[in-house]
Amino acid sequence: MIHDDPIPPGTPHDDANDIAPDAAAATPAADADNPLRLRRIRSFVTRAGRVSTGQRRALDELGPRFVVPYANAQPDWDAIFGRRAPRVLEIGFGMGASTAEIAGLRANEDFIGVEVHEPGVGALLKLIGEQQLANIRIVQHDAVEVLEQMIAPESLDGVHIFFPDPWHKARHHKRRLIQPAFVARLATRLKPGAYLHCATDWQNYAEQMLDVLSADPSLDNTADGYAPRPDYRPVTKFERRGLRLGHGVWDLVFKKRGR
């Protein structure tokens, strides 16, 4: 589950009531004849989740403007945002606090947030209203289907995947979002020179991310291994607490190679 406030390692991520699930997760089914074919992806919600009164009001009042309905076609994102600007996709924004903070700091860029969890969508809409943010749009749907159908090749200037569900049990690692086929498809949506920024608070997932991203022939690591946390990514309260306790957080920033 992708979330704004990573839970310190050792705490099951899906036991936290205020954490939203992944915007996408891989199922075990894959095409053995084509290892780069995407695994079948499903949205899932481990619990219904309670939508607060404020979140419901934001969904009702701001949803029509800021939530873009899923469609099997590429929308005119320039028309939707009302301008042509650098565009960043965030996969699984949780409750939206980091998304809103980054968008506020980077007002000259536009952000597409993908999340399946309705309380998370409502929470981000509430922040959009409170902070008067005009450069965010939300798609409440599977991230892989959004990527496939709604995002044109070589159209993104950046992608953020912060604290995806680590699926910490070994038998569940195949459900992790960062897999070779997904990364290969994601890379096709990046412009040459665009970046992919992942972060996790689980060391063995960080190691898997590093292996998968390093193996993709279209991506180059911007660091020698893990990257320092970029200034634009906020340090969350759980991350701050974990760091005080000696827990690690790993950032990875890769760029797409030029032609």
Automatic annotation (TrEMBL):
<dbReference type="GO" id="GO:0043527">
    <property type="term" value="C:tRNA methyltransferase complex"/>
</dbReference>
<keyword id="KW-0489">Methyltransferase</keyword>
<keyword id="KW-0949">S-adenosyl-L-methionine</keyword>
<feature type="binding site">
    <location>
        <position position="169"/>
    </location>
    <ligand>
        <name>substrate</name>
    </ligand>
</feature>
<feature type="region of interest" description="Disordered">
    <location>
        <begin position="1"/>
        <end position="20"/>
    </location>
</feature>
<feature type="compositionally biased region" description="Basic and acidic residues">
    <location>
        <begin position="1"/>
        <end position="16"/>
    </location>
</feature>
<feature type="binding site">
    <location>
        <position position="165"/>
    </location>
    <ligand>
        <name>S-adenosyl-L-methionine</name>
    </ligand>
</feature>
<protein>
    <recommendedName>
        <fullName>tRNA (guanine-N(7)-)-methyltransferase</fullName>
        <ecNumber>2.1.1.33</ecNumber>
    </recommendedName>
</protein>
<comment type="similarity">
    <text>Belongs to the class I-like SAM-binding methyltransferase superfamily. TrmB family.</text>
</comment>
<comment type="pathway">
    <text>tRNA modification; N(7)-methylguanine-tRNA biosynthesis.</text>
</comment>
<feature type="binding site">
    <location>
        <position position="90"/>
    </location>
    <ligand>
        <name>S-adenosyl-L-methionine</name>
    </ligand>
</feature>
<dbReference type="Pfam" id="PF02390">
    <property type="entry name" value="Methyltransf_4"/>
</dbReference>
<dbReference type="InterPro" id="IPR055361">
    <property type="entry name" value="tRNA_methyltr_TrmB_bact"/>
</dbReference>
<dbReference type="InterPro" id="IPR003358">
    <property type="entry name" value="tRNA_(Gua-N-7)_MeTrfase_Trmb"/>
</dbReference>
<feature type="binding site">
    <location>
        <position position="115"/>
    </location>
    <ligand>
        <name>S-adenosyl-L-methionine</name>
    </ligand>
</feature>
<comment type="function">
    <text>Catalyzes the formation of N(7)-methylguanine at position 46 (m7G46) in tRNA.</text>
</comment>
<feature type="binding site">
    <location>
        <begin position="236"/>
        <end position="239"/>
    </location>
    <ligand>
        <name>substrate</name>
    </ligand>
</feature>
<dbReference type="GO" id="GO:0008176">
    <property type="term" value="F:tRNA (guanine(46)-N7)-methyltransferase activity"/>
</dbReference>
<keyword id="KW-0808">Transferase</keyword>
<keyword id="KW-0819">tRNA processing</keyword>
<feature type="binding site">
    <location>
        <position position="201"/>
    </location>
    <ligand>
        <name>substrate</name>
    </ligand>
</feature>
<feature type="binding site">
    <location>
        <position position="142"/>
    </location>
    <ligand>
        <name>S-adenosyl-L-methionine</name>
    </ligand>
</feature>
<dbReference type="InterPro" id="IPR029063">
    <property type="entry name" value="SAM-dependent_MTases_sf"/>
</dbReference>
